[in-house]
């Protein structure tokens, strides 16, 4: 990897206005840990403090992502540091709100099938978006595509030097949790670079303990020689 671990995770339960909330996130920092650490302590508070969260959750999440990025650019980061984010808010075990900016991923597992419910914001996929903002995408031999030759994703928090050409705007998905829903997996890109969605499901489909399942997935990714930071959360439904 050539650097220290820059990922942070969040996993907590809260009771708000009579609702039971499960809050889960992976923050994958780059060029330092400061942005990911800030997101761990701040992003969910900003989302849940939006007055229209209960009536228009997608609008609230989008506003909170933007507001948090503004805070980071003003208070936290120099020209380089940044972080991706994938966040999942589980409401009363019935509704799941997933948002992401960057290449960490959320996968919903139901009836034996793994369904990706986040978007990998890769430069080749969003080349037009970058170019519309005045940036460019390069792909050097032996390396991954990068925005302005530097960043391997098109959406992230921080990264002040590139902010004119990237965005922190998330893709957002709302899913109902039914009796057939088995579990969700959140993981950073170091995991998904060596494991497909369905392979991840198959590796833990018979497990009942979420912590054990997450540790199993991490060990499997390491055995496949992943060279990126690896963070993983499994949330099981029984």
From TrEMBL:
Q: Which UniProt keywords apply?
A: Coiled coil, Hydrolase, Magnesium, Manganese, Metal-binding, Protein phosphatase
Cofactor(s) for this UniProt protein: Mg(2+); Mn(2+)
> Which InterPro entries does the entry link to?
PP2C, PPM-type-like_dom_sf, PPM-type_phosphatase-like_dom
Pfam families found in the cross-reference section: PP2C
Coiled coil (residue ranges): 197-224
Q: Which family does it belong to?
A: Belongs to the PP2C family.
Q: What is this protein called?
A: protein-serine/threonine phosphatase
Q: Which organism is it from?
A: Morus notabilis
